[in-house]
UniProtKB/TrEMBL annotation, chains A, B:
SUPFAM superfamilies (UniProt xref): Creatinase/aminopeptidase, Creatinase/prolidase N-terminal domain
Oligomeric form and interacting partners: Homodimer.
UniProt main location, coarse: cytoplasm
Lineage, highest ranks first: Eukaryota, Metazoa, Chordata, Craniata, Vertebrata
Pfam families: Creatinase_N, Creatinase_N_2, Peptidase_M24, Peptidase_M24_C
Gene3D superfamilies: Creatinase/methionine aminopeptidase superfamily (3.90.230.10), Creatinase/prolidase N-terminal domain (3.40.350.10)
Ranges of residues in domain Peptidase M24: 329-542
Name of this protein: Xaa-Pro aminopeptidase 1
Amino acid sequence: MSPKITVELLRQLRQAMRNTKYIAEPIQAYIVPSGDAHQSEYIAPCDCRREFICGFNGSAGTAIVTEKHAAMWTDGRYFLQASQQMDNNWTLMKMGLKETLSQEDWLISVLPENSTVGVDPWIIAADQWKNMSKALASAGHSLVAVQDNLIDAIWMDRPTRPSTQLLTLGLGFTGLTWQDKMTALRSKMAERKISWFVATALDEIAWLFNLRGSDIEYNPVFFAYAIVGMNTIRLFVDIKRLAVPTVREHLQLDTPSKVELSIQTAPYESVFTELQAVCASLGPKEKVWISDKASCALMQVIAKAHRSPIPYTPLCLAKAVKNATEIQGMKMAHIKDAVALCELFAWLEKEIPKGTVTEISAADKAEELRSQQKDFVGLSFPSISSVGPNGAIIHYRPLPETNRTLSLNEIYLLDSGAQYIDGTTDVTRTMHFGSPSAYEKETFTYVLKGHIAVSAAIFPNGTKGHLLDSFARQALWDSGLDYLHGTGHGVGCFLNVHEGPCGISYKTFADEPLEAGMIVSDEPGYYEDGLFGIRIENVVLVVPAKPKYNYRNKGSLTFEPLTLVPIQAKMVNTDLLTQKEVSLGNIHSFKSALP
Amino acid sequence: MSPKITVELLRQLRQAMRNTKYIAEPIQAYIVPSGDAHQSEYIAPCDCRREFICGFNGSAGTAIVTEKHAAMWTDGRYFLQASQQMDNNWTLMKMGLKETLSQEDWLISVLPENSTVGVDPWIIAADQWKNMSKALASAGHSLVAVQDNLIDAIWMDRPTRPSTQLLTLGLGFTGLTWQDKMTALRSKMAERKISWFVATALDEIAWLFNLRGSDIEYNPVFFAYAIVGMNTIRLFVDIKRLAVPTVREHLQLDTPSKVELSIQTAPYESVFTELQAVCASLGPKEKVWISDKASCALMQVIAKAHRSPIPYTPLCLAKAVKNATEIQGMKMAHIKDAVALCELFAWLEKEIPKGTVTEISAADKAEELRSQQKDFVGLSFPSISSVGPNGAIIHYRPLPETNRTLSLNEIYLLDSGAQYIDGTTDVTRTMHFGSPSAYEKETFTYVLKGHIAVSAAIFPNGTKGHLLDSFARQALWDSGLDYLHGTGHGVGCFLNVHEGPCGISYKTFADEPLEAGMIVSDEPGYYEDGLFGIRIENVVLVVPAKPKYNYRNKGSLTFEPLTLVPIQAKMVNTDLLTQKEVSLGNIHSFKSALP
């Protein structure tokens, strides 16, 4: 991996920072965040601006360029990768280390007095803008919105924004028509006396309209915005995409059944002026719902008196609770996924002794086998296919220069998943094709105990996922071990493999309580730097439980595993399992792992 | 319990709200919070202003009086009590119910346009002022500080502020001189470039100066403030208390060893003007540390540019980690406390069959037996002595009209503790003096399993207490049961029985990580409304653990119980305990409970 040479790019960017074509007055610093205008986790090539300017292509990182300095902040997952991908014009700011200054403090330490810091208001979230702006103001500087993106201005061969074909999903996949979803949304709005809702997250818009795209790799979404009023629906999307008869029919563009379900379409870029028009006509007490993670550009269109920012939109909450059709689809997807992975593991057992299988070829084989399953669309994230020490790199992705060969001597960890039209999968299995050591088996078994403890947990209705996180760690903690990531995330149904508002983590973020119908992952692990990595991940469905009692009629919940891929028996030290774990393991598809 | 008649008091208060002797312009509402100027949990009689105006004497509640309305907000623990103690001039606002308006929303709903709401800035915390002020401003009203307390103005027989004798504690009890503590505080200040620290919490001031008082029942503290600079110490306290030679010598008032350890004393009330003087002389970059729970009155003396509010002061953090002398003292206190309680339970076994022991007389006997122990000072909180259904009222305190007789048929729950000069205790035992039912034993055993799970938990250094809370609930959850309170709180050493910054709770408050030397309670429970209550509480010390491995050299922690009172064997269904719990139980002083 050789670093990107950025001398010339930085010269051009600094020139742009002084160019009155883009800004009235020169700016002394320019912030380049990671995300796109929808705060997507995965982004399209045209939005990889931070990578373009500094070379670092990890999923998280913010670059800041001043007249003299260039610095890039990322977290512990990416210290090595970033240091290899960036040239020495860049300073790597290692987040999480005590001595590392925050972006604000660094800016304050390097900027001349009364400086102006610029950022593209479309790719900074409203809440981040607020914090940054406040911190800079307290030190006499100011944060300004630069409407033209300065990276785009110097990015000669910037890819165009994707505009892939839209896929319409019928009731057999969605369980609810988009009209039903619209009605439910409006009743939530009426309940809270909200006049308008601005949808900015791509997966929420895809879910609402029962449409899918492939604008972003791994995520079946399409670039769009929506503005919904009590009698109005505005969809902002590349108009060319709506020329297809099936799409027109699906959205009833030509023959709306009712006035309030008639969709007005407009170009993607016109959302700004249309939202301005909506806001200009608001009555004095009217309120507009918008995610607090929406772009600063859109948030600021709405006057403070009308703005009602929310951490989780009603679409996010509704989407998280899967209906019977979606659950059935997710189950089907997991059956197909398990078939493909069983084929893979059988193939690996046969091929590994020949010494020809590598991390990359194993991942490719997994994709090939999955692609033979019905309604396969693509992978749901880049496969983490890792041998031995590479397994200890939690977000590892095999590259030609790191690619190891699978052998009978090292542990193999495969964390992978797929998008099928009926559902999304995400599964991790850790295996040994020779003879695992006693220590490998011991730590694997602790991870398995944690995995079972979460999967079999019974808890009252209304419990938030973060309260279950320690169950996954107890067996490891008892032996002085731990893992430094959360235990689970929400999973979409033929949508993003990571979705809110629920999860299982020691980090206390504002997660919403678990509800029957929600789907999350259960994935504790253990990582021994330089040696191996272990992770056991199932996707699990929240279901009602029926324990002996029912305290205050609150009801109880538990999990039903959707993932059906067996766990490798030889990795388990069964002496370390309790009888209860053995029996729970039987129920929960760990059968092959147990005596 | 008959309600307090408040017609005349409300008339007088409303008159005061219009009286230009106290305020320049009439105010349309007056807020009467619960606390004192130090945000103490327990308060002195002279500070019981909310009780005076409405009659309700629970530990939590806020009264608001407008020209036409009077309303009082309290939580679920107190709905019944408040409704019995308040007359019909008052509306009980049941916090936690969906239909109940917040104080802000209620004010906005009843006030005429452009109203002014008053509050005594000394008894409202700075963070509460901020929220209330913002909410009122958004609706066109304003919050103003009324310097003269309007309740005091109409409270004819208001008790005087206590000024009890000060007790000096030597090294044998504290382990550190106040001079050492002052030096440690100043080094924390230097580390963070802080010029001044304002101490407002009574237990922090008592701890810092190695002094105790008895101004507030159950809490061995005294009314005071302190302002500490790098070369200055100012102590604000009723000057009369400093006339005692032992106190003068302890504080080296007449012969300071060093200039920077010379204490300047001033009257309690002069803290405001002295802080003004300190702030007036601040250099442009100087910062002042103050708790964000300090009174609005003091917070506002410090200009925003100089203010550095913190959730936990360095004194709070230092006080929480007990030194070897304090740990030894806490152990001694718990030995004495266990002797007294064993005597009590032996006495109860003998006396209960006679039918003459009541909740009140049992609590009195417990106090009498404790008072015979060396260095006994008083109780550490009002004893919760409860029989049968009263046990299900979590914060029950026996009153003549609720007093039940202990019998062979009902469960008895005693949650009590004492202050000894060497330490503070807090213990709950639940017993049956006849034959407990199978259901009582079953639920008791689930609570015991949870209690053992926390007490025996091993967890990495740096873990916050809230991550352990679910361990206490797992056995109950498995059977569909739960309890609606946290699992543990910090415990002071001959100081407040509840102290920050650590705890064990499902509520994610900003708790600090557990550290070796911290002391918390472990007290899961189960409550069956109208039938019985179960709680098992030990005070436990955080100690290093030595599990098999040591992941990333982080080190592990566990708990050592300080409480030595046996758990009643006949309440345990041993079939429900695992072998591991039985052996852990043996280690952890549950011996008498086990076969």
